[in-house]
């Protein structure tokens, strides 16, 4: 069995800063690369966890939309915060929850502390699509 892979690219999310795709559709899944807390033009989306989390999720939403998928199609997310502490996790969760409030089955998730380059938030996602 040959698994067809398709590159996903959109001008509505930041361009990759290295040798990777914004996303890849493989079979019935979409894999979205780590989306930082920056706007599509590369500008930092403010200096708070909240503003950067919102930008990251908006970027993911736009990558998914290129293949007709939505945030409700996400089955797993990996969330990276530059400083993992309860205050930052709470701030992140407040924003994150608004993007999935109407989703019956919330994605599986991991939130970890990571050394990030110049940002406070980076999120990857896997979505299931038909």
From TrEMBL:
Domain of life: Bacteria
Stored Gene3D superfamilies: RutC-like (3.30.1330.40)
InterPro entries: RutC-like_sf, YjgF/YER057c/UK114
Sample GO molecular function, one term: deaminase activity
Listed GO CC annotations: cytosol
UniProt cross-references to PANTHER family, sorted A to Z: 2-IMINOBUTANOATE/2-IMINOPROPANOATE DEAMINASE RIDA, 2-IMINOBUTANOATE_2-IMINOPROPANOATE DEAMINASE
Descriptive protein name: Reactive intermediate/imine deaminase
